Amino acid sequence: MDSDIKPFNISISDAKITQLHHKLEHATFPDETPLSDDWAGGVALSDIKRLYTTTIHVDGFDPLKIHFVHKKGSRLGAIPLLFCHGCDFIEVAKILPLLANPDSQDQPCFDDVAPSLPNFGFSSGPSKPGFALEQYAESCHKLMLKLGYSNYATQGGDWGYGITRFMDIRYGPASSSATKKSGAVLASHINHNLAVPPSISTIPQHGSLVYLKYLFSTYSKREKEGLARTHRFWEEGAAYNGLHCHNPTTIGIALRDSPVALLSWIYEKLYDWTDSYPWTDDEILTWISIYQFASAGPKAGCRIYYHSATAKKVEEYNPGVKLGVSTFPKDLLMSPSYHYRTLGPLVFENWHNKGGHFAAWEVPELLVEDMRVMFGGLVKSGEINFPGPK
């Protein structure tokens, strides 16, 4: 193990917990509060094992202390997988044992790496502005290289979608924006599905054929429902996005000062963005506490919106990275099937009948099965090959 990679224990000081209790005891609620009176569960942060920290150097920024989960597969030949979260690293908790310890020898095994993104969880944040999707992608890529993975696959939803898409473009083979560091990302699976409609220009290699098929196709019932849901989200549910993109400091001050504000701000999303998932008190408080006690503070997670608001490169077509897409009916943004083909060579697609925005947490077995089928199939067919860690 690299000498800079060190085990990490979650430790919240008594002073911070006392301060939190004090703020909660003196919180002032409106006359009708949506918060129930019995939210007194404990915070179970110890469920995640194999926690580490290491220093990552992102070009143009001070060194970052990155916290990550690293769970190796139970047998040789495991597929190295970077899981890139949206809200926080805890999203990986339920899929870790399924990926690393499959029940059958016929199922592929994975080495799982799940970092807390800079500004999130127990990772530090940059000390100056300008840290956007390109820098988040660089930090994740350099972490994988530091762990010895010269080639790997990625999985992402929410912000993980944008970051892994940027990784595909910058660090995948045959990229139009290829650099001397490209060629590491061989396959990518996403479950936050936002893509532009096909046109002759959006798919350089075979755009005209796909475009013509698209012109003469009709949307299926589920595609129409997905487009309607996407429209409703932008019309009714995206106010937070505008605030994060344009006024992150304003909302950040409120979230930093009031744990009740933080609770209501995040729990609203946990409730609205899932497919009637039955959140337990412990689950809610665990997710919120990771924000409350984040190394960079609860407001730091808003910065990614501000610095990445104009990112367009994630929509670029990349012929070198095999692409898989899973769609869940209660997700926020859903594109019709033909739209995905503007992102890269689509080798896997699955539309599910249940699940929402937090698929890894709500329906982990469905997401894992999709990754097994996609990545396992590519390896078995010989289309991609992952050498072991160095």
UniProtKB/TrEMBL annotation:
Q: Which residues form a coiled coil?
A: none
Q: Where is the active site?
A: D158 (nucleophile), Y305 (proton donor), H357 (proton acceptor)
GO terms of molecular function = epoxide hydrolase activity
Q: Which Gene3D superfamilies match?
A: alpha/beta hydrolase
> Keyword annotations for this protein?
Aromatic hydrocarbons catabolism, Hydrolase
Q: Does the keyword Hydrolase apply?
A: yes
Where the record annotates domain Epoxide hydrolase N-terminal, the positions are 5-52
Q: A biological process (GO) annotation for this entry?
A: epoxide metabolic process
SUPFAM superfamilies xrefs: alpha/beta-Hydrolases
Record family assignment:
Belongs to the peptidase S33 family.
Q: What is this protein called?
A: Hydrolase
Kindly list the organism's lineage: Eukaryota, Fungi, Dikarya, Ascomycota, Pezizomycotina
